[in-house]
TrEMBL record:
Placement of HEAT repeats on the sequence: 235-273
Protein name (record): Uncharacterized protein
Record keyword Zinc-finger present: no
PROSITE patterns tied to this protein: HEAT_REPEAT
PANTHER family: SERINE/THREONINE-PROTEIN PHOSPHATASE PP2A 65 KDA REGULATORY SUBUNIT (PTHR10648), SERINE_THREONINE-PROTEIN PHOSPHATASE 4 REGULATORY SUBUNIT 1 (PTHR10648:SF8)
Ranges where the record places region Disordered: 327-363, 430-454
MF (Gene Ontology): protein phosphatase regulator activity
Keywords for this protein: Repeat
Basic and acidic residues composition bias: residue spans: 327-337
Organism, as annotated: Danionella cerebrum
GO cellular component: cytoplasm
Length: 784
């Protein structure tokens, strides 16, 4: 009886659940929201927020129901549970984009009704979003900030709403009476008309160094947006103060954004003021500040480049910041990620981030000011929304200096003039800027003169050249030489080839550095430097380095190999031809499993075909191509097959060389004892015809007979690819229908009666004009 009663209870519960589900299914989408939005279960209310977008889509045909759903947002925004409000903020961008895409859903309604949905964002969503920016819960604030960033980037917020509603809220969040956390988070949303005065005030916030640090971190973005005049008059005085802040983290942030600030300043200010300020950061008592300054030194020097230099780049891309995107290939050549020690357990006092006592703080990596990064992105998006021209401006566009660029700085400069080096020390180098750069033993005076130039302040260049000093690695950064190598092409571009003598010794020192990462960085940028310096200097000073890199570790050689074509094409033909003998050395690697090295070699050989004569291609590149065609890795072989077909095209201009090459192709592939080579021969024939690598007459005479012989091949995979080649390629050419139709049809007839069903299928299948490269690769890649 007990079991029977338990069964009855279970049935009753099941019936109740079924009634509950059935009742739920009977509700309209809007009715379900009304039911669960009042639930005491937090999870139900979260689900309501999460399902708003789906509900809107379900009722999208009725605009008034859409508005009714949107009105529930206010109730969710007032929910006592922070997770519900945070969930709502995550949905805001999606809902806003839905509204934007469906403004004209009801084309049959009158105009007054059509205005309801577009206005819903401004009247409902935006006020809720702005209210949550000031929420007491950190999760809700962060989510609302991310939502605002998305809306700004998508340009969903109108100009009037942005200026009259969003910007005032952000300004209010940065007011002195605002919560310190809110002030730090909202700092970065700035524009000259509304936020610039408040931004300047926050740069001088005496209570919270966190605020000053976030201000310093976003200073470059600020300068880029407001332009040169506002930068000179309002921002630079504050920047000088931040560079002399008693908290090392603030000074470090200044060093990291120095290039952006310099790019927005006038040439006079850059030469006379910012240069001296940067020297102070390089000699800062804090190791972390010096480290950041040296990492930014090459970038800062690049801002002295003339507009004529900036336009250099054979590909047509502007070389912004003179970084040239060097060393971005190969996985290991991204900019070195130095440790960024931050403050742990910081209080409100600025003493909490005084200079660290020693390098032991290198292990501290807390990100207290990290939340400001999201706001920095919001800043950029907000400013771009206010001024779309911001995204189109050239980053290093020359600025017109004010009539008196230093007049607005006098008051602030007096406060920290004791920290500046004299301008005379920077300008003294202009007295003697000519040097013949001759070799031989030089006394210290001659050595000093050999470094003279008049493009950048000599003190900056001297500091840059000192980055190869071994003592710098001990006192500043173990990878300082790598940073020097990374920015060297940008510095060379700034100085110009006439001042190469200033960098020559430094370059040779870096090229022989004991750290392979330094040499690897130079190897990746060698072609860029050759383009800057010209063929004469390249032949004299870069070729020896190039030759040494060819015999270096694979980690270094890959940098040379990836840009081998780019470098060799800059050499004179007679010099370039000398390297034909050394190309075979790339087939030998430290690790035989490094197949990507050989794949890259095949890719470069395809490009090198245009640099050499047909005779050189036949004598030197042909053996390399056939060697790569027999590689153990399929990816290498497929690239080598493309190389072979391009060689056929190259040799077509010389009938004797073409005949020799095609004969060898038939012997090595068409009659090979390996079925994979015979299969590859069918594929090569197909590509040669499809890509017009060889005339159809030469193909019929030298390749077609061997191709048709594959009809009796004992391996079905070979016959399958032959059937595809005949049916999908050759029979689509009118030439073969007129001259070789009988032989082709006879071969196809044999294949159509083949014992293998796949062979019969492809021999009978008529693909129209479909190309079969992909089919061939899918057939062969699994069998190689």
């Amino acid at each position: 009886m007990a079991d029977l009663s338990l069964l009855q209870d279970s049935q009753e519960v099941a019936e109740c659940l079924l009634d509950f589900v059935s009742q739920d299914e009977l509700l309209t989408p809007l009715g379900r929201i009304d039911k669960y939005i009042s639930s005491e279960n937090v999870f139900n209310r979260q689900m309501v927020a999460r399902s708003l977008l789906d509900t809107l889509r379900a009722v999208s045909e009725d605009e008034r129901e859409c508005v009714a759903v949107l009105e529930k947002i206010n109730r969710l925004a007032d929910d006592s549970e922070p997770t519900v409000r945070a969930e709502l903020m995550e949905q805001i961008p999606h809902i806003a984009l839905f509204i934007l895409e469906n403004q004209n859903l009801l084309q049959n309604q009158n105009q007054e009704q059509e205005q309801i949905l577009p206005l819903a964002f401004s009247r409902i969503l935006l006020p809720v979003l702005l209210r949550c920016l000031n929420d007491q819960n950190n999760l809700v604030r962060k989510t609302s900030q991310a939502a605002l960033l998305v809306l700004l980037e998508q340009r969903v917020i109108g100009q009037w709403d942005l200026e009259q509603r969003v910007c005032p809220v952000l300004v209010d969040l940065t007011a002195p009476h605002s919560n310190d956390d809110l002030k730090t988070e909202a700092m970065a949303e700035v524009t000259e008309r509304l936020f610039l005065p408040r931004f300047c005030e926050m740069c001088c916030d005496c209570r919270m160094f966190h605020v000053r640090k976030v201000c310093a971190a976003s200073f470059g973005d600020m300068c880029s947006v407001v332009g040169g005049e506002a930068t000179e008059e309002l921002l630079l005085p504050r920047f000088y103060q931040l560079c002399s802040d008693n908290v090392w983290g603030v000074r470090k942030a200044c060093a990291e954004c120095f290039m952006s600030v310099s790019a927005a300043a006038s040439p006079e200010t850059r030469q006379n003021k910012l240069s001296a300020l940067f020297i102070n950061l390089i000699s800062d008592p804090s190791r972390w500040v010096r480290q950041a300054a040296f990492q930014s030194l090459g970038q800062f020097i690049s801002t002295f480049a003339s507009p004529d230099c900036i336009s250099y780049n054979p590909s047509g891309c502007q070389v912004e910041e003179a970084e040239l995107h060097l060393a971005e290939e190969g996985g290991g050549e991204e900019r070195a990620e130095s440790l960024n020690p931050e403050e742990l357990g910081q209080g409100s006092s600025s003493e909490a981030q005084m200079d660290p006592p020693g390098p032991t703080l290198e292990l501290e990596s807390s990100c207290v000011a990290r939340p400001g990064q999201t706001q920095v992105e919001v800043l950029t998006a907000a400013l771009s929304s206010l001024d779309p021209r911001f995204e189109e401006e050239a980053f290093l566009e020359p600025r017109v200096a004010p009539s008196n660029p230093c007049s607005c700085l006098e008051g602030s400069e007096q406060q920290f003039s004791h920290t500046k080096v004299s301008d005379s020390a920077l300008c003294s180098t202009h007295e003697d800027c000519d040097s013949d750069g001759s070799d031989g033993n030089m006394n210290p005076e001659d050595d000093r003169k050999s470094r003279q130039q008049d493009v950048v302040p000599q003190a900056l260049l001297d500091q840059y050249l000192s980055m190869t000093d071994p003592s710098r690695a001990q006192t500043v950064d173990m990878e300082i030489a790598k940073h020097c190598a990374y920015s060297l092409p940008g510095v060379a571009l700034t100085l110009g080839r006439q001042n190469w003598h200033c960098l020559r010794d430094t370059y040779e020192t870096l090229a022989s550095d004991m750290q392979w990462k330094v040499r690897r960085t130079l190897a990746f940028s060698l072609h860029e430097l050759a383009g800057i310096l010209g063929d004469r200097i390249t032949a004299t000073h870069l070729l020896p380095v190039f030759n040494s890199f060819l015999k270096d570790l694979d980690e270094v050689r890959i940098g040379v190999l990836k840009h081998l074509y780019d470098f060799l094409k800059l050499l004179r033909p007679d010099t370039r031809r000398q390297y034909l003998y050394q190309l075979q050395e790339f087939l030998v690697t430290d690790n035989s499993r490094n197949w990507r090295f050989r794949s890259e070699l095949a890719e470069q050989l395809v490009l090198l075909l245009e640099l050499y004569s047909p005779q050189d291609v036949h004598d030197y590149l042909r053996p390399l191509a056939f060697c790569l065609c027999s590689d153990r890795v399929s990816s290498v072989r497929w690239t080598a097959y493309r190389l072979v077909t391009e060689m056929v095209r190259k040799l077509s201009s010389c009938s004797s060389l073409l005949l020799s090459f095609l004969s060898e192709l038939v012997e090595k592939f068409g009659r090979s004892p390996k079925w994979s080579c015979r299969q590859a021969f069918a594929f090569l024939c197909q590509v040669c015809v499809e890509d017009d690598c060889v005339s159809l007459q030469n193909f019929s005479e030298y390749l077609l007979p061997a191709l048709l012989c594959l009809a009796s091949d004992p391996v079905p995979n070979v016959r399958v690819l032959l059937a595809k080649t005949l049916r999908q390629t050759l029979l689509q050419k009118e030439y073969f229908l007129c001259h070789q139709q009988e032989a082709l049809e006879h071969t196809l007839l044999l294949l159509q009666t083949d014992g293998d069903k796949d062979v019969k299928y492809f021999a009978s299948y008529h693909p129209g004009s479909t190309r079969m490269n992909e089919d061939a690769m899918s057939t062969t890649s699994s069998t190689y």
